[in-house]
Write a structure and sequence with these properties.
Oligomer: single chain
Low-confidence stretches: 469-474
Structural class: alpha+beta
Strand order of the largest sheet: 2-1-5-4-3
CATH architecture of the largest domain: 2-Layer Sandwich
Mean pLDDT: 80
Radius of gyration: 40 Å
Number of domains: 5
CATH superfamily of the largest domain: Histidine kinase-like ATPase, C-terminal domain
Number of helices: 20
């Protein structure tokens, strides 16, 4: 059981009182934080001046009035001077003789959060010995004695300086550890290269930004770490940074197809580099740009379409009246043709509305291979007997987020275009799907028709362009292109040795079964890590309550509604996260219990914890945590 706050306070006070030297601690507002009993006794101070909150100036005034500093002249001026010195406090060591004849050493050191600690040591006996030695001038020379005194004082000053340096070293070490932990938690690659292009610092995140690259790159040259393809794309900006010009730019990595944003910031010893994976952001930007284009097209065509629709309505109405009148066969044939043309105009208007009107993408989990089988069943009856449709689904074994309706419309358009390209001949249409890294879902439609002409390759995606003469509207491929861009993907047309090849790439987002929002108890003693994980959880839609120790966690876990407990293994206090979960489980807690840790994989504590509870390793991303929380805890 952890000691109470009162017990800790009593133990601290007793320990300080046992120190033979006098000690005082003041904060940045010059108010007493703590003194020990030898301090009160050495300067014979009243209790009010040794109580937390007592002001430094009151203590100086009291001591000066009692003659501690000898004749001081103007008391107020003396007190003000000492207070000003304290506000600009610096580490120091000094020796002074008090009014009572005793000699003390005074050693002061500033504290990291402001304020200072001072230690007072009675060195009267040491000074008496020095005087005794000085009195024996017949045996020792004045020069030797003076040198001994100076050496003694220098040694004391050196000890004080070493103590201050050790404290500064400790603070710097802690600061470096916190900085490294922060950089390792960031979803970005942060690095520094020297003038020769070799890495002098790097967090271990390069492989998460560019999957094919290593994580441990200290000492490597930037060209070797990034690889030829990626380095060739950043080289012009890197060379500018070497000459002192900062820049931010984006490029697409050929191997992974990821969109990477890079920032170069030069300094006198090299270049700082920040790299982030912005693939999803770039896909969203492309979708937004396409939405803006569609909105503009809608504005430009809405007035014309409205008037055109009115005209078609009038034409169809008049032709309908004419068809009910007695007409010759030739006249009836013209009426029928006119009605057909008007209805075709109506169909054309609907296609324009689909292309340029407001359409909202509704992605949902789709079992893709089943979707492709259903598409084949739907499309096969529309094909001539001599045309076959084959479909291959590779490497997509879990649901993906897609707008199934939009994709079905697009693929049906491509299948019908391929059928028209094959014509009256026998032929084959093939649809192949596969993932490209973990970034794109690639769908390729090939046929054995005549392929695209050069003009078609250049203009086939333009609205109203058609090679079918009066039989085509020119909106099929344009609609496919529009829906693909709206989803954040892209479309490419090409010719193969036999027929055309249309490649569609859509953002690949694997998904899992949807989970209801949880009330999560997060137990983590690091404020920074706890804040980061809390933000991840709330972004997922979960509610979070927090604890910093196993004791707090055990108190909060039974709260009604808590259905997920996520705890670090190592916690402040007397219990680990594993022991906390063991106690909660024994007491009948029904919530899902999981652990997180930064301990290495071969650590026996981690190994034991992982054998009993689900465990996620730090650092982890929001996607990692989301996947972890949806795993079956059994």
């Amino acid at each position: 059981m952890a000691p109470s706050k009162t017990t800790t306070e009593n133990l601290t006070r007793a320990g300080l009182n046992l120190i033979q030297q006098a000690l005082s601690i003041y904060d940045s507002d010059l108010r007493c934080v703590r003194v020990n009993r030898p301090f009160k006794e050495m300067f014979d101070l009243p209790k009010t001046l040794c109580t937390p909150g007592a002001h430094f100036s009151d203590t100086i005034r009291y001591l000066a009035m009692r003659g501690e500093y000898g004749e001081v002249g103007d008391l107020d001026e003396f007190v003000t001077s000492r207070v000003d010195q304290a506000r600009a406090f610096k580490a120091h060591y000094m020796e002074r003789t008090r009014a009572n004849g005793c000699t003390i050493s005074v050693e002061g050191s500033p504290l990291p959060e402001g304020g200072w600690v001072t230690v007072y040591t009675d060195i009267t006996a040491i000074k008496d010995q020095e005087k005794l030695l000085r009195g024996r001038t017949d045996e020792l020379s004045d020069q030797l004695l003076a040198h001994t005194e100076r050496l003694s004082q220098t040694n004391r000053e050196l000890a004080a300086t070493n103590a201050a340096l050790e404290e500064a070293k400790h603070q710097l070490t802690e600061m470096e550890a916190r900085t490294r932990m922060t950089t390792e938690m960031m979803p970005a690659h942060i690095a520094h290269v020297n003038e020769d292009g070799n890495y002098t610092y790097s967090n271990r995140r390069l492989s998460s930004i560019i999957p094919s690259r290593p994580s441990d790159i200290l000492g490597m040259h930037i060209a070797d770490a990034l690889g030829h393809s990626a380095f060739s794309k950043i080289k012009p900006h890197y060379e500018k940074a070497q000459s002192g010009t900062a820049s931010v730019f984006e490029f697409t990595d050929d191997d992974s197809s990821r969109r990477i944003r890079v920032a170069f910031n030069p300094d006198r010893r090299g270049v700082y580099i920040l790299s982030m994976d912005v693939t999803e952001e770039a896909q969203a930007r492309a979708a937004l740009a396409q939405t803006h284009k569609r909105e503009l097209a809608a504005q430009l065509t809405s007035g014309l379409a409205h008037d055109f629709a009115n005209l078609l309505t009038i034409i169809l109405g008049m032709q309908s009246r004419l068809s009910r009148m007695d007409q010759t066969a030739d006249a009836q044939e013209l009426i029928t043709a006119t009605q057909s043309a008007a209805r075709r105009g109506g169909t054309l208007l609907n296609r324009i509305a689909e292309m340029s009107g407001p359409r909202e993408m509704r992605p949902a989990p789709v079992e893709f291979c089943r979707f492709m089988n259903d598409l084949k069943t739907l499309a096969t009856p529309t094909l001539p007997s001599g045309v076959t449709l084959d479909s291959y689904c590779n490497g997509i074994d879990q649901p993906v987020l897609l707008d199934a309706g939009s994709l079905q419309d697009s693929l049906l358009n491509l299948i019908l275009n391929a059928k028209d390209a094959i014509g009256a001949n026998s032929g084959k249409i093939t649809i192949t799907t596969k993932p490209v890294r973990d970034t794109w879902l690639e769908i390729t439609v090939t046929d054995t028709g005549g392929g695209f002409s050069n003009k078609a390759l250049e203009h086939a995606l333009d609205p109203f362009f058609t090679t079918k003469g009066s039989e085509g509207s020119g909106l099929g491929l344009s609609m496919v292109y529009d829906l693909t861009k709206l989803a954040g993907g892209h479309l490419r047309l090409a010719n193969a040795s036999e027929g055309a090849v249309i490649t569609m790439r859509l953002p690949l987002r694997f998904t899992t079964l949807e989970t209801a929002p949880k009330l999560v108890l997060l137990v983590e003693d690091s404020d920074d890590i706890r804040a980061t994980v809390r933000e991840m959880l709330t972004d997922m839609g979960h509610r979070v309550i927090e604890a910093t120790s196993a004791e707090e966690g055990s108190t909060l876990a039974p709260i009604e509604g808590v259905n997920f407990v996520l705890s670090d293994i190592s916690l402040v206090g007397g219990k680990t996260g594993v022991e906390m979960l063991d106690d909660l489980t024994e007491n009948g807690l029904t919530a899902t219990t999981c652990l997180m840790t930064s301990l290495p994989a071969n650590d026996p504590i981690r190994t034991d914890a992982a054998s009993r509870y689900p465990l996620i390793s730090k650092p982890f991303t929001a996607d990692d945590l989301a996947a972890f929380m949806t795993m079956d805890p059994s």
